[in-house]
Amino acid sequence: MSSKAVVGEIVSSGTRKNWKPTALPADPEATRQLQEWLASEEYNLNGMERDFRGADLSGGDFSNAWFTDAVLVGVRLVGASFYRADLQSADLTGADLTGADLVKANLDEAVLRMARLNGTDMVGASLYGTDASGASFRTTRFLGASLIDTDMRGADLTDAVLDENIFEIKADDSTVMRGLTGTVFGPVTVFSGESSRELAGTELEAWIAERGGHVRVLPPYRTPQ
Fold first, then answer.
1. What is the Cα–Cα distance from 200 to 1, expressed in whole angstroms?
2. pLDDT at residue 2, as a whole number
3. How does pLDDT run across 74-108, given as a tens digit for each residue?
4. Extended beta strands in 129-219, E state
C-alpha cells in the first residue's frame, strides 16, 4: 500500500483534531501505531522503540506521548508539540524540530546531533546526558531547562535565551554563543583538542562575552539550612 493510500485510510477512519502526517514512516509497525492512535480516542501516543524514519509529522500534537528509545532520525517535526513528552534516549539525529514545543519534555540521554531546533520552546525541559553536538538552537528559549552533561560542542546558540538554567554543558571553540542572553548556573566544560577545563563565575561570563553572548552566571544554589 502506498503512503498516500495509507494516509487516506487514516483520514477516513477519523483524525485527531483534523491533523494528518504529510508522510508516514517507512516502517509498517510505526505506521500501524500512528493509524491506531489517530483513529482512537486515546490521548497519548505510545511510540516507544518505534522507527519513524521517513515520516513528516510536522504540526502534530504529541503532548504527553512516549517516544522513549524511538528512532526519529531525519524526521520532519516542524511546529510539532511535545509538551511533557518522553523522548528519553530517542535518536533525533538530523531531525527538523524548527518551532516545536518541547516545554517540560524529557530529552535525557537523547541524541540531537545535527538536529534543527531553531525557535523551539524548551522551557523546563530536561537534557541530562543529551548529545546535541552540531545542533542548531537559534532563538531557542531554554528558560528553566536543565542542561547537565549536555554535549553542545559545535552547536549554534545564536540569540538563544536562558533564565536560571542549570548549564553544565560541554562546549568548544566551535560552539556559537553570539547573542546568547540570560542567567545560568555553571560550570561549563570547555574542550580544546584532547584537553578540557571547567569555567564558572566571572571566567565563564568572560568566555561567553568573547563569543558575542551576554550571560550572567549565578552563584551556586544552596538549600537553606
1. 57
2. 42
3. 999 999 999 999 999 999 999 999 999 999 999 99
4. 146-151, 165-172, 181-185, 188-192, 195-199, 214-217
Q: Are 172 and 154 in contact (CB under 8 A)?
A: yes
Report the alpha-carbon distance of residue 176 to residue 90 in Å, rounded.
25
Distance, in Å, from the CA atom of 150 to the CA atom of 171, rounded to the nearest integer, reads 9
* Position 170, amino acid: K
Strands 188-192 and 195-199 come out as: antiparallel
108-119 pLDDT per residue, tens: 999 999 999 999
The DSSP secondary structure of 2-49, one letter per residue, reads: -HHHHHHHHHHT--BTTB--SB--SSHHHHHHHHHHHHSS--S-B-TT
Radius of gyration of the chain (CA): 19
Calpha distance 184→187 (Å, rounded): 9
